[in-house]
UniProtKB/TrEMBL annotation:
<dbReference type="Pfam" id="PF14588">
    <property type="entry name" value="YjgF_endoribonc"/>
</dbReference>
<feature type="domain" description="Endoribonuclease L-PSP/chorismate mutase-like">
    <location>
        <begin position="6"/>
        <end position="142"/>
    </location>
</feature>
<dbReference type="InterPro" id="IPR035959">
    <property type="entry name" value="RutC-like_sf"/>
</dbReference>
<dbReference type="InterPro" id="IPR013813">
    <property type="entry name" value="Endoribo_LPSP/chorism_mut-like"/>
</dbReference>
<protein>
    <submittedName>
        <fullName>RidA family protein</fullName>
    </submittedName>
</protein>
Length: 154
């Protein structure tokens, strides 16, 4: 018997939140053909950033990794809002991650593993994806991490 993506989330103790409303002039997602583009999601729980500041200063690697995981949960909430069913995802194509960090912080890719690992936990092999990680000076609300995603859908 195949386990659905939502059953896997439940087994991990994860409940998808209500998708965050855009904070500026954009939409949370756009579908074009079989691709779903999800706007960057911050590390928000109940509207508040769980990691504030910069990696390499106020935020530890472990806290950054957890923040990236929360971003991924928020991405999946947008995907569910777009599709109604996470099992319509046929492939996680790409994640793009932004890590607020000091110039000397070199472990941005390790931070983004928090998001990547969740995609593989939920979708298995079809959760493996291409990825970019970029260190930045600051993110909205002084959040430490933001992740965007591209998904192939049925």
């Amino acid at each position: 018997m195949t386990t659905s993506a939502e059953q896997k989330l439940a087994a991990l103790g994860i409940t998808l939140p209500t998708p965050a409303a855009p904070i500026a002039n954009y939409v949370g997602f756009v579908r074009s053909g079989r691709l779903l583009f999800v706007s960057g999601q911050l590390c928000l729980v109940d509207g508040k950033a769980v990691a504030i500041g910069k990696l390499g200063a106020e935020v530890s690697l472990e806290a950054g990794r957890e923040a990236a995981r929360i971003c991924a949960i928020n991405l999946l909430a947008q995907v569910k809002a777009a599709l109604g069913d996470l099992d319509k995802v046929t492939r996680v194509v790409r994640l793009g991650g932004f890590v607020a960090s000091t110039p000397s912080f070199l472990d941005g890719p390790k931070v983004l593993n928090g998001a990547s690992d969740l995609m593989v936990e939920v979708f298995g092999e079809k959760g493996r994806h291409a990825r970019t990680t970029i260190g930045v000076a600051v993110l909205p609300g002084d959040a430490a991490v933001e992740v965007e995603g591209t998904f192939e859908v049925a």
